[in-house]
Amino acid sequence: MSSKRRFMQLDVFSRQPLKGNPLAVVIDGDGLDEATMRAIARWTNLSETAFLLTPTQPGADYRVRIFTPTRELPFAGHPSVGSAYAAIETGLIAAGKQALVQECAAGLLPVRVDGSGEERTIHVQAPPAHVHRVDAPTVHAMGDALHHVLDDAQVRMVINGPHWLLCNLHEASHVRALDPNFPAIAALCKRHKAIGLSVFGREHMKDASMAVRAFCPDDGIPEDPVTGSANAAIMAFLAESGDSVYGSRYRASQGREVERDGYVDVARDPASGAITIGGDCVVTIRGELDLRG
């Protein structure tokens, strides 16, 4: 097999280059062993690197494996959105097909494609979420790490593939003003086997109703620019708590604090409870990865 693989880097959850969340995608992932995938993910040093593969399950249009610089993830939002976009851009998926199925370690996930070309948006259904309360010492430790007084109603652990510690700070001003203790967050995440701690609050901008930040220092990423799985987990938290502020569909703003402004469209089907996250993508790099050696 050739040592050269098609390679693409996209900015996800943005239509503007150098904003949103960068994603590396190795288009021709077949034949790469796990050790090589991990090495590539360490080399790109992005929050996630995705590998497109031939599907193994009936009904799937493509398969994706997703790696951070330190671990493989069963599901992640911006790699799922970006991988579908890359699969279409490179011809792995026929242009014009609007309903896709992604195979990943979390299972088969429906994908909806709206529009075409630069107007194309991708919406991925997240895996079912499991929402858990956390104990009082964890609530206290999260408050200490965020330098913010918290109570039990504000905090949940949500598992939708990755594990997320979540905190409702109610107002965007609290979210934007945070100066978190990253070593303390890393210790919390390690203790609870969580990929990160994400916070959110009510935004009052014209183009978004929620402000979100996600901290993943235990994975080498102090603040992730725009995080699909965290946004899906937040919607599950809101549904479980009987929230009446945001409704079943809203747009979240994330990344402003690290100058990577992005927007995530989040929706929950009231009948099935299925949660989708979606948004724009823009390709910033097209080329080949040469693995001779």
Overview of the molecule:
The chain is of the alpha+beta class and 293 residues long. A hairpin with an 8-residue loop joins strand 1 and strand 2. It has an eight-stranded mixed β-barrel. It has helices spanning 34-44, 77-89, 136-146, 172-177, 182-192, 228-240; strands at 4-12, 21-26, 49-53, 62-67, 72-73, 99-104, 107-114, 121-125, 130-132, 155-159, 163-171, 196-205, 208-216, 221-224, 249-254, 262-268, 275-290.
Q: Could you list the spans in which at least 5 consecutive residues all have pLDDT below 50?
A: none
Give me the number of helical elements. Answer: 6
Name the average pLDDT. 96
Quote the distance from N terminus to C terminus. 14 Å
Looking at how many chains there are and whether they match, the oligomeric state comes to single chain
What sort of overall outline do the alpha carbons produce when their principal axes are compared? globular
Report the strand count. Answer: 17
* Main sheet overview: 8 strands, mixed, barrel
Task: Describe the structure concisely.
The protein has helices at 34-44, 77-89, 136-146, 172-177, 182-192, 228-240; strands at residues 4-12, 21-26, 49-53, 62-67, 72-73, 99-104, 107-114, 121-125, 130-132, 155-159, 163-171, 196-205, 208-216, 221-224, 249-254, 262-268, 275-290. It is of the alpha+beta class.
For this entry, give a set of tags:
293 residues, alpha+beta, 6 helices, 40% strand, globular
Ordered list of secondary-structure elements with their pairings:
Elements: E1 4-12, E2 21-26, H1 34-44, E3 49-53, E4 62-67, E5 72-73, H2 77-89, E6 99-104, E7 107-114, E8 121-125, E9 130-132, H3 136-146, E10 155-159, E11 163-171, H4 172-177, H5 182-192, E12 196-205, E13 208-216, E14 221-224, H6 228-240, E15 249-254, E16 262-268, E17 275-290
Parallel strand pairs: 2-3, 4-6, 11-12, 13-15
Antiparallel strand pairs: 1-2, 1-17, 3-4, 4-5, 6-7, 7-8, 8-17, 9-10, 10-11, 12-13, 13-14, 15-16, 16-17
Helix pairs in contact: 2-6, 3-5
